[in-house]
């Protein structure tokens, strides 16, 4: 049978952004409703979110536009019928973590705690997506690594171990999020150990600068793929995004 008899699955648009718990820089203003509108306009199939509030009793009482539901549910609304949340940090009045929103069924998800001794709590949220027209499930991992380089090195090792044990060799894999990897050490490690390619490096020769969003200097946010190709990854423009997050969001079209 000719390969033309098997139409290729449509491309998958993915987006990643650290939403800073729904507040502007320095927590001056709550902008989650504006953020939801901006994310909707991108129309991504799968959205990787970091620093998402699951709950916060104090904010809910004093902020007028505070949603009744967890922020990942508020953001997903009717656009992304499937979502998963991984709680990383718990404090007296609330909690936050990573989330994945998907237009396709999430058939399984698991949050991996990769926190190391110290105040920072970090996680890797692994989701398995069932994409129509794709014979093998797509694996998506939402990442938020530590600020200390010694922690990031250990967390990258944990990420590699997780991929080896949980992701089939032939499965399409997308790993995205806030790597805090300002020294750009992760790319070589992830390509050597588990065959991940960073989409901006592959397309343009270097990682995208994403932080601070107003005048990006550091390459903190990344999208990596395996068993997939990427078309024209982009950093979203300063307007309106520099008002909505201190990290510039990344978007890429993934071909499975």
Can you tell me about this structure?
The chain has one domain: Deoxyribonuclease I, Chain A (4-Layer Sandwich), CATH 3.60.10.10. Helices cover 25% and strands 34% of the residues. With 256 residues, the chain is α+β, with helices and mostly antiparallel strands. A six-stranded mixed beta sheet has the order 3-4-2-1-12-11. Strands 5-6-7-8-10-9 form a six-stranded mixed beta sheet. The N terminus is likely disordered.
Itemize the secondary structure elements and their pairings:
Blueprint: E1 12-18, H1 32-42, E2 46-56, H2 57-62, H3 71-76, E3 82-91, E4 94-102, E5 106-113, E6 123-129, E7 138-144, H4 149-166, E8 173-178, H5 186-194, E9 197-198, H6 199-204, E10 221-226, E11 229-235, H7 238-244, E12 250-255
Parallel strand pairs: 1-2, 7-8
Antiparallel strand pairs: 1-12, 2-4, 3-4, 5-6, 6-7, 8-10, 9-10, 11-12
Helix pairs in contact: 4-5
GO molecular function: endonuclease activity; exonuclease activity
Pfam family, one: Exo_endo_phos
Keywords: Endonuclease, Exonuclease, Hydrolase, Nuclease
Strand content: 25-35%
Mind telling me the CATH class?
Alpha Beta
At the fourth level of CATH, the homologous superfamily is: Endonuclease/exonuclease/phosphatase
> So, CATH architecture?
4-Layer Sandwich
- Number of separate helices: 7
Helix content: 10-25%
Radius of gyration: 17 Å
Succession of helices and strands? EHEHHEEEEEHEHEHEEHE
Which oligomeric form is depicted?
single chain
Poorly predicted regions? 1-6
